[in-house]
Amino acid sequence: MAVRAPVAVVAVAAALAGCTGQEAATPLPGGGGPAAVTSPSSTPSGSAGGPPPAGASVLTSGDVRLTVRPQDAARRQVLGSYLGFFAAYAEALGKADAASAELRRRTTADAFADFSRGIADNAKAGVTARGPVSLRPAVQESGAADLTVILVDCLDATRQRFYDRSGEPTGRTGTRRPIEVELINSPGPVRRVVGAVADGPPSACERSGS
Question: What distance in Å separates the CA atoms of residue 193 and residue 103, rounded to the nearest whole number?
Answer without folding.
Answer: 10
